[in-house]
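Postdoc handover notes: sequence design on the structure in folder B. Input tokens:
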């Protein structure tokens, strides 16, 4: 018994030493900042923004305890909020907030933990969105001035957080989605559909009118072109007939007997060329004089 007693005491002392060391030493990660509490009251901050302190640290055992906070950017997904814009139109807005803990001591004194901080910030975001977006129109919220409105709401949330001494820094505030309430969506879509149908009907009517104007102009141009072409054709044909008559007259004047013979040959060709023509003429008709006397019939007739 006497020999085992010192060993037992050493084991007890070693166990107590381990407990003391475990309650004295603690590690602060690079991504964290720590707040040391003494009997529940904050006394110092370790690894605050812009200060060293990450790694192994010491506290008073059994008297002080440590609360750690994330130094990185934190996200808050706000619940959907229904707002009424300047045109008295309901709009469901889904937003998110990015922030970081800039003053851990003030953050702990005001908010205590992350859950309370999330609830407090969500109320700030929803209140700011109702105030900022409620003074503008739906089209501005959706597209035209969205970035400007988000910047204005971000500054408003940052101002309110500073006045409330929350110990946070607002980094960004954005709208993920802005949509109509489900109850109003069908009626709005129907109204938009009716407007688009009216616009389509106006466009089709305007196009039909333009088509008719183009067709009428084309028909008019065709009529004018045909009339001009017909006039030019008649003029050209008349000039050709006149030239042909003049040439025939000149040719007949140079050799009347040959001209008479040529004309008779043309008449024979026109009258007898088919082979089934029947002519009823007297035997001494002038039509057959070239059959009896040959090409000189005209010259002989001319001499007589």
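Designed sequence:
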């Amino acid at each position: 018994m006497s020999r085992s007693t010192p060993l037992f005491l050493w084991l007890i002392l070693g166990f107590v030493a381990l407990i003391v060391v475990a309650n004295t030493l603690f590690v602060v990660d690079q991504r964290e900042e720590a707040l040391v509490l003494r009997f529940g009251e904050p006394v110092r901050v370790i690894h605050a923004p812009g200060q060293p302190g990450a790694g192994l640290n010491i506290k008073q055992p059994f008297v002080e305890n440590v609360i750690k906070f994330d130094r990185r950017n934190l996200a808050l997904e706000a619940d959907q909020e229904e707002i009424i814009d300047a045109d008295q139109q309901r709009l469901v807005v889904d937003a998110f907030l990015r922030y970081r803990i800039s003053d851990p001591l003030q953050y702990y004194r005001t908010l205590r933990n992350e859950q309370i901080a999330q609830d407090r910030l969500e109320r700030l975001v929803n209140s700011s969105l109702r105030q900022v977006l409620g003074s503008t129109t739906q089209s501005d919220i959706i597209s035209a001035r969205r970035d400007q409105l988000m910047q204005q709401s971000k500054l408003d949330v940052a101002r309110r957080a500073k006045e409330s001494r929350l110990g946070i820094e607002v980094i960004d505030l954005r709208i993920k989605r802005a949509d109509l309430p489900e109850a109003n969506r069908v009626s709005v879509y129907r109204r938009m559909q009716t407007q688009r149908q009216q616009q389509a009907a106006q466009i089709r009517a305007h196009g039909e009118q333009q088509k008719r104007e183009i067709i009428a102009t084309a028909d008019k141009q065709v009529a004018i072109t045909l009339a001009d072409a017909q006039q030019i054709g008649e003029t050209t044909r008349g000039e050709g007939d006149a030239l042909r008559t003049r040439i025939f007259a000149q040719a007949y004047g140079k050799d009347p007997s040959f001209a008479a013979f040529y004309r008779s040959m043309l008449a024979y060709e026109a009258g007898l060329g088919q082979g089934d023509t029947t002519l009823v003429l007297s035997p001494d008709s002038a039509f057959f004089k070239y059959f009896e006397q040959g090409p000189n019939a005209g010259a002989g007739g001319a001499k007589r």
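Context for whoever picks this up: The radius of gyration is 56 Å. Don't rerun without checking with the PI first.
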